[in-house]
Specification:
TIM Barrel, single chain, Beta-Lactamase, alpha/beta, disordered N terminus, 2 domains, Cyclic-di-GMP_PDE-like, 6-stranded antiparallel β-sheet, cyclic-guanylate-specific phosphodiesterase activity
Length: 432
Amino acid sequence: MPRPFSEAPAVPDVDLLSPMLTREGSTWTADYQGLTLRTALQPIFSLSHKRVVGYEALIRAFDNDNSAVLPLHLFELAATDADNLLLDRLCRYLHISNYSSFHDQLNWLFLNVSPRVVSSGSQADSFFGELLKKTGLPPHRIVMEIVEQPTDDADKLRETVSYYQKLGCLTAIDDFGAGHSNFERIWNLSPDIVKLDRTLLTRATDDHKARQILNGIVGLLHQSGCLVLLEGVETHDQAMIAIDAGVDFVQGFYFQKPSILLDQMQHRDFANLDQLLSDYKSRNRVTLEPTDQLTSFFEQDFHRAVESLCQGSAMTEACRTLLNHPTVSRCYLVDENGVQIRDTLVSDTTSRNLDPRFRPLESTSSADWYRQQYLRQAIARPGSLQVTAPYLCITGAYMCVTLSLGYRENGRLNVLCCDILANALDGELSRL
């Protein structure tokens, strides 16, 4: 029967663990229950800096025949809380010993903290501080990764994060976006870095909506004061998604697999970030071309509609040409305060396809659109046609692009707006 934690032997300190480590050339190994433990490092890259800024330390176990043992099986050997604490500290001791003599004397070392240690063992002790003193590794070069998980003691989790921050380490929340991750923990724990779970990237690879959600999550995390790392990048397309999402750091097999050959890490060929960013710029320029086509195609019709309105024509007459285009959904007029001043004109195609479930949103008389960026831009730059990126239109809950043009009529500034169906653009723009 496993010993309860309260009956465990003395908490393992640095001196107790030291005999379990052995030096092999330029690296260290550790012995644990008949297995040999080694450090594997996987580089972490900054997309903006186009270079390595850190390494995640991962444990690799081997039996007497030098056959690899799955990490899952290794941690299953730690049957009690005391055993788990010992293994957790032994792994960190091993990783820091190896990284202290590593060729890189600048970048971060990312270390994982066992969830069971966080929930059941106190971190407010001298072990980690003593370990850093013994190895000479400055605390500001350590990023402590804490896995997101349900915990019975939120105060203990907060205490753990605070302990490492007071030591001078950076902290990271791992696997955000999976399981029990939520923004409340981000706000409560104030980590320096958030590692997004690879499932977010996997979904974004096949689902455009998931890609937009990923971009939104990154934006919210940045607003919360966190740097963002996306792990699990395995393909060129996923690297493009990571760049487009605005993440700060990337990690994954596409860039470099973990390796126990630490002395060869500096000689390895990493993914060419210059080429990757060049590919992104080329691809992004291509995606902007339809926007340029859109403004060029509709600009003349917009100015004609505005001229007609200034001459006293009704909206129906002034916007007829615009509304007859198959991609156009609706036209509406807004004053300089963002308030709609006439009823919305809906194209015949849109009228036939209105979703009755969103009927409460159809009437926009006196609606206030000032919050919309396209409106503020049109007010700030009268006479210049503005265009948005695709977004969800609240009027009908469909994706659209909005064109807007500010103009003066009888001394007042008005804005003519036109919503275009985003899903109709690809086919139609090829014929513009």
